[in-house]
Amino acid sequence: MAIFRQSLWPEDAAVLGSSFPAFDKVNGTSSPVPRLLYDAGTTETAFWRWWAVNYPGGDITVELVWYAVNATSGVVRWEVAMAAITPESDTQDAETDPLATAVTVDDTHLGTTSKRLMKATATLTGTSLDGVADGDHCVLKVARIGGNAADTMSNDAALIEVRLTYGS
Description:
With 168 residues, the chain is mostly beta strands. The protein has no helices and ten strands. The protein has a single domain (3-167), classed as Jelly Rolls. A hairpin with a 4-residue loop joins strand 2 (22-27) and strand 3 (32-38). It is globular, with a radius of gyration of 16 Å. The model has no long low-confidence stretch (mean pLDDT 95).
């Protein structure tokens, strides 16, 4: 069986309400870096729509590639959740489909350098998969729970990529 990986990019994110990460692009020395800036003191959320192409069943690994804008230590608490709808089968309203059980992950900045790439990994299993099937239309939520006591990095976390991996 093959392994499938999809990348979700900051510039493709959608937001809801008023508590969302700011989209930004910094011009690096050699290339531009699009990013979502998640605040330290509040919960901010972004959403991506994607298709479960060739999904064989089983867990979905969500990797959040991020860096601290100006910090060199601390922990960032991330939360991911998803929703899935099977076109022409599910009767769920696409505008009111609830998200499944959320998964949280705490990722520690490894220190020494701000803007050092970090990777937080969350695994969607069981009820957090929302009954996803091959070909489903899905929504993925990514939030930083900045107000949580476990989130100790007092600086913006810049999310530059979300990777979904499934299969074996």
